[in-house]
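Colleagues,

For the teaching module next term, I've prepared a clean inverse folding example: a structure given as tokens, and then the sequence designed for it. I'd like students to try predicting residues themselves before seeing the answer, so please don't circulate the second half yet.
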């Protein structure tokens, strides 16, 4: 029997493209479903151009692939359930449902995986905000549809309540206590349905709620780093994880608090392409195929810088001046403001000296 598989990827952005590149290295064929026929994945795979909720297109993809996976969590889980054959989506649709809704996600993390999350409560209308203790700070987040800080309101005083009440009356929300973290970190973990493998802890710096820089290893104590990795493994095991998952967390002086999970390779794991002996995309493909997973080694401390639409020229200049830095461009045709166009990875023991593109100029 041939070990070459046809892998169907839902979503043809940069994550789908980098998954496809890993799959192709391993000898597999990739077909992508994406609304845009010229999406980044079109450089490396066949594309079925159709909306994500087009059940006929999902069925067409399922019919011609051995295994299906996705590059983002807002996939139509019901549509997928209607078309997948037994075992065809190793990640399952349950994980999608958990990560599509912050209420399910918090419930899963705190009650099933039993990891620490910020104290929270479900908010169904502004009435649920009437008795909050304003001596503390909070973040109100819509249960569904939020990303990169959209659909969120920080509450630090009574003045913030007007906007928070409006948000609470517009959609189901989760109210979280504000965490006074030292660092934002994340851990990539991959599973093959039986075993898991875990990557080093990543330190993440955001600008305008968009990831700007990742430093690996994160500058936290070994004790906290071990704890962060153990939490990621615990979550993965609770899920019988297949493929790659990113666990985003806050590191405080003496604790790790889980913020959210993303059931796919993540922007903060891109450094692994050059800096680890297997990338988060390699282990994603191995994992969804149920193949044995390698232990992960970091070759050297690394830094990843995101290249947004307004940073393309600066990034191109940077790699001309620093030819040992690796420039990845995703092949997007239009460089819009704040659109993720590529990233740069370099090895460095002095991450503070690696300056983010556009820092102080145009984030
Ligand atoms: P999220 O959409 O949950 O990833 O939140 C976006 C960003 O808001 C995070 O990267 C944090 O910088 C910040 N944030 C979210 N939740 C909290 C919290 N409970 N306490 C402090 N900061 C938060």
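(Answer key — instructors only)
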């Amino acid at each position: 029997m041939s070990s070459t598989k046809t892998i169907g990827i839902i979503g043809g952005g940069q994550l789908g493209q980098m998954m496809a590149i890993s799959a192709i290295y391993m000898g597999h064929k990739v077909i992508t479903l994406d609304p845009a026929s010229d999406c980044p994945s079109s450089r490396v795979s066949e594309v079925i151009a159709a909306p994500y909720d087009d059940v006929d297109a999902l069925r067409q993809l399922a019919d011609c692939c051995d295994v299906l996976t996705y590059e983002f969590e807002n996939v139509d889980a019901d549509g997928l359930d209607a078309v997948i054959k037994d075992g065809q989506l190793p990640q399952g649709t349950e994980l999608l449902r958990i990560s599509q809704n912050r209420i399910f996600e918090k419930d899963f993390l705190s009650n099933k995986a039993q990891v620490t999350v910020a104290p929270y409560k479900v908010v169904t209308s502004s009435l649920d905000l009437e008795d909050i203790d304003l001596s503390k700070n909070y973040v109100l987040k819509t249960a569904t549809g939020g990303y990169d800080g959209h659909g969120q309101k920080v509450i630090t005083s009574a003045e913030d309540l007007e906007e928070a009440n409006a948000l609470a009356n517009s959609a189901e929300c989760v109210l979280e206590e504000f965490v006074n973290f030292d660092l934002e970190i994340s851990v990539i973990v991959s599973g093959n349905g039986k075993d898991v493998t875990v990557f080093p802890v990543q330190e993440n710096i955001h600008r305008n709620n968009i990831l700007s820089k990742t430093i690996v290893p994160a500058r936290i104590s070994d004790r906290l780093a071990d704890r962060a990795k153990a939490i990621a493994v615990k979550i993965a095991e609770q899920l019988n994880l297949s493929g790659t998952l990113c666990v985003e967390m806050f590191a405080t002086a003496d604790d790790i608090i889980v913020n959210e999970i993303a059931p796919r390779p993540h922007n903060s794991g891109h450094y692994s392409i050059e800096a680890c002996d297997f990338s988060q995309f390699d282990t994603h493909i191995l994992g969804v195929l149920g193949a044995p997973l390698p232990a992960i080694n970091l070759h050297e401390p690394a830094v990843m810088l995101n290249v947004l639409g307004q940073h393309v020229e600066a990034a191109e200049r940077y790699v001309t001046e620093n030819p040992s830095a690796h420039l990845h461009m995703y092949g997007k045709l239009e460089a819009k403001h704040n659109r993720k166009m590529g990233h740069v990875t370099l090895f460095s023991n002095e991450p503070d000296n690696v300056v983010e593109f556009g820092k102080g100029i145009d984030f």
